[in-house]
């Protein structure tokens, strides 16, 4: 990978000095700086009292990893050419480190979403806000295993290593980065599922939106929906679906629209930019909605249940609701409030 073995370095290597244009290194530094700022901003503005989950741990680990990358490339950008532990670092390594991160991010989407989906499916009906130490240890181990496995696949698979070496050899003044096929397929699936759900219950969603009113509750403005399904024979899941859509799109509609535009234009975003905390929170809300819909009969109407999502309030999807499992007094309510 444009490197030569150093006879006195005990297996370490030196990189041949490549004068990469200043613009490329500076652009990567500024992009990663903006990404890190956005990620820590999202972690700061999210709701603090949220049930601990695997995705929360992974979001924190991603922000810390991006921050470590930012510090590394900032150090290289400032000193330009230096040796550390027998290895010579130049601005070429800014591109190399970013490429490795991009390749790693591109292959961890499926494992992360699979583990997060299983986590929510098994715990969405639990009312405890603070899982035991065993759950927390499992979350940490899952995050560590995913990252180690990702880096191992990128750094140890010969085909990937040879591709990096060839591209950096023939284009030393460029920095070819990689888009994620996994992220592209997940984005397609989310847009397709949300679109299908909207087509299936567009009348109910439209009726709910037309019934919305802004009122004052405890000196705070809230949205009030007075719509209730006219069909008493409609299944519980069928009645729940439009409410989940209104909740989800009420927060993430701009993000869904952005995904549609990106897919329509065929834009390929580098993986180191595509894997970010806002995107993970978007997928997190989608997975929570799917888990609520799949296990709606098991959801208990307690205050602790509604601290699952850091950005979306799912409370109004279930309270009040014409559910056969609720008491008669609860069935009288036809007004839904989103705070």
Automatic annotation (TrEMBL):
Annotated organism of origin: Dryobates pubescens (Downy woodpecker)
GO cellular component, one term: plasma membrane
Compartments where found: Membrane
Keyword Membrane: yes
Domain G-protein coupled receptors family 1 profile: 34-292
Coiled coil stretches, renumbered: none
PANTHER family: G-PROTEIN COUPLED RECEPTOR 160-RELATED
Stored PROSITE patterns: G_PROTEIN_RECEP_F1_2
Superkingdom, taxonomy of origin: Eukaryota
Main location: membrane
This protein's name: Putative G-protein coupled receptor 160
Keyword Transmembrane attributed: yes
Keywords, alphabetical: Membrane, Receptor, Transmembrane, Transmembrane helix
InterPro entries registered for this protein in UniProt: GPCR_Rhodpsn_7TM, GPR160
Residues that span the membrane, as ranges: 22-45, 57-79, 91-116, 137-161, 181-202, 240-265, 277-293
């Amino acid at each position: 990978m444009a490197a030569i073995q150093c006879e006195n370095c005990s297996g370490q290597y030196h990189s041949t000095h490549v004068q990469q244009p200043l613009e490329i290194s500076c652009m990567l530094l500024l992009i990663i700086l903006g990404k890190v700022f956005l990620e820590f901003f999202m972690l700061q503005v999210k709701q603090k009292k949220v049930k601990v989950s695997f995705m929360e741990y992974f979001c924190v680990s991603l922000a810390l990893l991006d921050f470590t990358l930012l510090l590394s490339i900032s150090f290289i950008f400032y000193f330009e050419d230096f040796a550390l532990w027998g290895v010579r670092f130049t601005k070429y390594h800014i591109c190399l480190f970013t490429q490795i991160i991009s390749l790693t991010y591109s292959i961890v989407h499926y494992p992360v979403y699979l583990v997060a989906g299983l986590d929510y499916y098994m715990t969405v009906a639990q009312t405890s806000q603070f899982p035991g130490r065993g759950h927390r240890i499992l979350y940490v181990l899952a995050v560590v295993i995913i990252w180690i496995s990702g880096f191992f696949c990128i750094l140890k698979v010969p085909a990937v290593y040879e591709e990096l070496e060839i591209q950096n050899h023939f284009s030393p003044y460029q920095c070819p980065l990689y888009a994620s096929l996994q992220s592209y397929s997940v984005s397609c699936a989310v847009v397709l599922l949300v679109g299908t759900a909207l087509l299936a219950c567009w009348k109910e969603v439209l009726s709910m939106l037309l019934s919305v009113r802004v009122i004052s509750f405890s000196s705070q403005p809230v949205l009030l929906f007075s719509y209730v399904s006219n069909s008493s024979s409609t299944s519980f899941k069928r009645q729940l679906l439009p409410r989940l859509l209104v909740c989800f799109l009420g927060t993430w509609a701009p993000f869904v629209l952005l995904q549609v535009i990106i897919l329509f234009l065929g834009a390929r975003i580098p993986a180191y930019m595509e894997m970010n905390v806002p995107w993970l929170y978007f997928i997190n809300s989608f997975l929570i909605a799917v888990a609520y819909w799949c296990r709606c009969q098991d959801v208990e109407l307690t205050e602790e249940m509604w601290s699952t999502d850091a950005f979306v309030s799912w409370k109004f999807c279930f309270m009040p609701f014409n559910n056969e499992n609720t008491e008669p007094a609860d069935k009288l309510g036809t007004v839904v409030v989103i705070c």
